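Reply to dn_fold:

You asked what the input looked like. This is it:
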Amino acid sequence: MSLAYFALIVSIVSASALEIAGAKFGAQLGTMAAALSLSAAALSARKTDYEHYWRATAWGHWLLIAIPLCIAAQLLPLPLSLAHPIWASTREALGGLPLGSITADIGLTLNALVLALAAIALLGVTILVVRDRGRAELVLFVVAGIAAVSALVLVLHRLVPAVLTAAPADLAVSFAGLGLMLNLAVMQLAAERAETRHSLLRSIAIGLCGLLGALVSAAAIFGLSGTNSAVGASLGLVLMLLILVIRRLDLSLLAASAVSVAAVAGTAIVLTFLFEQSSGPLLLRLVPDLGVETKAALERLLADTRWFGAGAGTFSALGRIYQSESGAALAAPSAASSIFAGMGWIGLLAATAASILAVVRLFFGALRRGRDSFFPAAAASCVVFVLIQGFAGPGLLHPAAILCLSVIMGLGLSQSVSQSSR
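and this is what came back:
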């Protein structure tokens, strides 16, 4: 697994660092490294590795297969009655067979399919390679460090606007939220090490690094991002605290259930309040102010979206069709609106349901684990943040965010199941 582990690290570091720096080829390099890591893992995996993978993904085997299949189905030639209207218009103008595809842009949907396969490959490889606790810790350090550096870039850019102008601010905000959860997990790791009589000096050094990363991420997400992003991060923190309290106080099943139900009820109240603060389509209520013309054009785009969408990854193509009255092409205001435009209500509902299912799976996995509970706890908190941030901004659409989130999910799922068979 050494080559797979090395390629995994190269994938997330290269994709993230290059995209933060404004380079255009970070996604391609990350995807190639993901393919290499998958090949290496497949060649070196043993029976126990496969068994561990199936246990870790028992909650959603169907999902890992359904996502690429649904995207691929959008590329298939279909009768024009099922295809995107653009193909009917093309046939009227140029002639040809009465066939078309669901997607409005085959090239963009192919790119989305490749990215989805890379993300699923990284998730699977991560589950396998981090069975070893030492590797799991190193992967946690890497993703926490990447997120903290991205948050630092956002802080520096806001303090000195001339610095690091190429870094996408929306990506930095998303990484800042993830970095807060991950660096708190690093601090928990240091505390667990100290309690189990590891080197005290090393535990203190790890804890201080986690504290520094958490402070930088907190400054970025709470001080320099929007209110809705800050609320998403707060809900993630609440989940981490809930898991920590239940474990540390060794609450009974009844007490733990009561506290969990109260937390869910409080979250529902907060989310209801957030979405009722503005009017208009549900998908546009948490995004920053868009302007009257842009918002009207986006409302037309969303209203015309059908159940199966217009093709994964095609929002930029649709944005040129539904441009505002000023002639400017539309950009995706949030990850949720992009998923809806590309995959329709079916894709958006499936993504939301899968995220909630993952949170539940990781939550119970964290409660079952002992001193390693911070791995699934941090992953669950990251997914909670992603659920809110997905409606608040487009940062999660960047390939770097998608690949890093896959690694975080793989880390949490792998460490949420027993390692006894290793």
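The beta strands are 78-79, 99-100.
Hope that clears it up.
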